[in-house]
Write a structure and sequence with these properties.
This protein has about 220 residues and is of the alpha+beta class. The chain has two domains: about 130 residues; about 60 residues, Orthogonal Bundle (Arc Repressor Mutant, subunit A). The chain is built from seven helices and 13 strands. Strands 1-2-7-4-5-9 form a six-stranded antiparallel beta sheet, covered by helices on one side. The chain has a three-stranded antiparallel beta sheet with strand order 10-11-12, with no helix packed on it. A two-stranded antiparallel ribbon has the order 3-6. It starts with a strand and ends with a helix.
């Protein structure tokens, strides 16, 4: 069982939860945001932090796991952990006792799926988490209030990716979503802003790990 909720927090895209019935794996798309995942199995908890990813990533899961996670917005950053240092990386955060974990020099109480927003606001109040609103506005298509060079520097520091990489990732994620919604390959390529189908196919193979045809086939089987 898998569920998601769009978050009311200005720092979170969405929160998800999954009860795993059968072991397996899935391909995660490239992205330019932090993902914090909590996994519980046999009374043991694991906390994993994944940074920005410039290629598809195979994620494994085990029967019996209860997993949930927070997907942050791209303009959110962690003060003591630059995203560039976590590019294409995922790390297990150490537990402190049974109810807390360590993020950098900070010890933080384990949240739950239902307290995710309260947990994130606590991180903001403690100065662990912050947001670059200039990048948020630019990602929302507003013109940045700074020079091009300054913006590019802020963008890479905040997202871990260059502006060009973020644009490629956003285009691929949009095309993936359109194909999952049942759009034709031609329509998805056009709406996502690709020059042609071949360009979209190359991009999706790298950033989503699948061709457009494979994405459509998976959609029809689901």
């Amino acid at each position: 069982m898998h569920e998601e909720r769009i978050s009311s927090s200005p720092h979170i895209q969405f929160v998800w939860r999954a009860h795993v019935e059968e072991s397996g794996s899935f391909t995660d798309l490239a992205h330019d945001f932090w993902v914090l995942v909590f996994r519980a199995l046999h009374d043991e908890t694991e906390v994993r932090l994944t940074g920005p990813v410039t290629k598809s990533l195979l994620i494994s899961y085990e029967a019996g796991q209860v997993n949930w996670g927070i997907v942050f917005k791209a303009h959110v950053f962690i003060h003591d952990l630059p995203k560039k240092d976590m590019l294409n990386k995922s790390t297990t955060l150490p537990l402190v006792g049974r109810k807390s974990f360590r993020l950098g020099k900070h010890v933080i109480q384990l949240p739950t799926f239902d307290t995710a927003e309260e947990f994130v606001e606590t991180l903001v109040r403690r100065g662990i988490l912050n947001a670059n609103m200039d990048i948020a506005q630019a990602l929302g298509k507003a013109a940045p209030a700074m020079s091009v060079r300054t913006f590019q520097r802020h963008h890479k520091r905040t997202t871990g990716l260059t502006q060009s990489q973020s644009q490629q990732v956003a285009r691929a994620r949009k095309a993936f979503m359109l194909l999952q919604e049942g759009k034709s390959i031609v329509a998805a390529a056009f709406e996502a802003g690709y020059a042609d189908q071949a360009h979209m196919t190359r991009s999706l193979k790298l950033l989503a790990g699948q061709t457009p045809g494979q994405i459509i086939a998976d959609y029809k089987q689901s």
